[in-house]
Design goal:
Elements (H helix, E strand, L loop, with lengths): L1 E4 L11 E5 L8 H8 L5 H9 L4 E2 L2 E2 L11 E4 L6 H7 L10 E4 L3 E6 L15 H8 L7 E2 L8 E7 L2 H12 L4 E9 L8 E3 L2 E5 L5 E5 L11 E9 L3 E8 L6 H8 L13 H9 L7 E9 L6 E5 L4 H11 L6
Parallel strand pairs: 1-2, 9-16
Antiparallel strand pairs: 2-5, 3-4, 3-5, 6-7, 7-9, 8-9, 10-15, 10-16, 11-14, 12-13, 14-15, 16-17
């Protein structure tokens, strides 16, 4: 059974299959290629069948980091998926388009709303990328270049070609992009505090929830994280900050600002929980963190691109009320 891998993965099968790599998958690592094809199969099993030699590329054994090319024939051993997972796969995400900031043949930049995950997983059945693929069935490839937290709004890049994905991800990894967020924090941020250079460590709570904390510079588990902070506007009870990140650690901005004693308004993980309840009554029902500005080199032309996503209406409204003087007693 031979299939050409295009925009949609084939169904799970209990038979040996031979897959022909399409143009849009050329250059992808074998493990990532299989994880996408074998929806619902645990990653541990994917790596097990690669190590065992059951997966073959052009009749030969291949490592997880082997790059597949267009026209390669990949042999897959019989793989079974739990009925619950298969049933879930039969219920596609609802098609949805998002506000477009830039689109051409290589890249799509959207303005992601808060409350929407960028992809399915961790208790979320679908996200932005699954909805885009449903809305654009003719698209050969749509892949996330980077990620945003579910409650963060703003600029999100999606690659439309494998070559664009690779070049853009290289820029993010090599810190060649300019990523600036707007964050409203509690209290008066000290204007002289412009650089936060504190290592971060990811860990799991007893309930399995992922968290991040600041650790000492000599901590072997710490990953260096650098955030540049600039005050954009001051209010009576808050400060609006421009935060440019030089590293892309999980929850970096949220943890850095909270560790400085000025958590982000509305942050349900690292914020002031009692204050958040009050803010919700005042109209702020989400975290005030927005991916505002992004600069990168276009993957095809090499020209520098600068994107800007204005604050969403609900955040603009909260800011407008924050500027008002307190009501007389």
């Amino acid at each position: 059974m031979k299939q050409i891998i295009g925009g949609r993965p084939p169904p799970a099968s209990a038979e040996v299959r031979f897959l022909v790599v399409g143009e849009e998958s050329a250059g992808q690592r074998l493990d990532n290629f299989l994880i996408r094809v074998l929806k619902g199969v645990p990653k541990t099993h994917v790596y097990r069948i690669i190590r065992s030699g059951e997966v073959r590329v052009n009749k030969g054994r291949a490592a997880a980091d082997t790059r597949v090319e267009e026209g390669d024939v990949v042999r897959l051993p019989p793989v079974r998926i739990a009925e619950s997972v298969a049933a879930k796969a039969d219920q596609p995400a609802p098609a949805r388009e998002f506000p477009i900031l830039l689109e051409d043949d290589h890249v799509l930049a959207i303005d992601k709303p808060a409350g929407v995950a960028v992809h399915g997983g961790s208790g979320v059945s679908f996200g932005v990328i699954e909805q885009l693929r449903q809305a654009r069935p003719a698209a050969k490839l749509l892949e996330l270049v980077h990620r945003l937290d579910r409650e963060t709004s703003g600029i999100l890049l999606v690659a439309k070609k494998r070559s664009a994905l690779t070049k853009l991800q290289d820029q993010f990894r090599d810190r060649e992009t300019g990523k600036t967020y707007l964050a409203l924090v509690t209290g008066a941020w000290p204007a002289n505090k412009k650089v936060i250079d504190q290592p971060l460590h990811k860990y799991l709570q007893a309930d399995g929830e992922r968290r991040v904390k600041v650790v000492g510079k000599d901590d072997p588990d710490g990953m260096r994280a650098i955030s540049l902070v600039k005050v954009q506007e001051k209010f009576r009870d808050f400060t609006l900050l421009e935060v440019t990140i030089k590293t892309g650690r999980t929850h970096q901005i949220r943890v850095h600002l909270a560790s400085a004693g000025h958590p982000i308004a509305g942050d349900d993980k690292y914020g002031d929980f009692e204050l958040n309840k009050t803010l919700a009554k005042r109209g702020l029902k989400r975290m005030f963190l927005h991916a505002w500005r992004l600069q990168f080199d276009h993957p095809a032309t090499g020209e520098r691109v600068a994107l800007l996503a204005p604050l969403p209406a609900e955040l603009q409204n909260f800011i407008a009320h924050a500027r008002l003087p307190p009501a007389p007693v």
